[in-house]
Amino acid sequence: MSIRCTVESAFFIAWSFLEKSGELGPPDESANVILDAIEAQLRRGERRQLMLANKAIDAYRTHVAKGNGSAEREARIG
């Protein structure tokens, strides 16, 4: 599987999970946090889709918990 397909799949898994759980905030900010987390893991050599997605979810939750951006407000409202 190509890196592009791996990234797309990991992103979709993370995005779908966060959306279904009601944790997803503003789309642009959320996408950037998820993609940044996936990219950082790829640089370290991780290629497993589920691991990439799970770590991206953790990174997103950490981002929100630290009060970075407006994602926390959106998650509480939505």
Integer average pLDDT: 90
Helix count?
4
For the biggest sheet, the summary is:
none
Overall strand count? 0
Please provide the ordered H/E string of secondary-structure elements: HHHH
> Uncertain spans, ≥5 residues at pLDDT below 50?
none
Strand content: under 5%
Class derived from helix and strand content:
mainly alpha
Note the overall shape.
globular
Distance between the termini: 35 Å
Oligomer: single chain
Q: How helix-rich are the residues, as a percent range?
A: over 70%
Radius of gyration: 12 Å
SSE topology:
Elements lengths: L2 H18 L6 H17 L5 H17 L5 H7 L1
Helix pairs in contact: 1-2, 1-3, 2-3
Molecular structure report:
- The protein is an all-alpha fold and 78 residues long.
- 76% of the residues lie in helices and 0% in strands.
- It is built from four helices and no strands.
- Helix 1 packs across helix 2, helix 1 crosses helix 3 and helix 2 packs across helix 3.
- The protein is globular and about 35 Å long.
- The model has no long low-confidence stretch (mean pLDDT 90).
Keywords:
mainly alpha, 78 residues
Produce a short descriptive summary.
The protein is mainly α and 78 residues long.
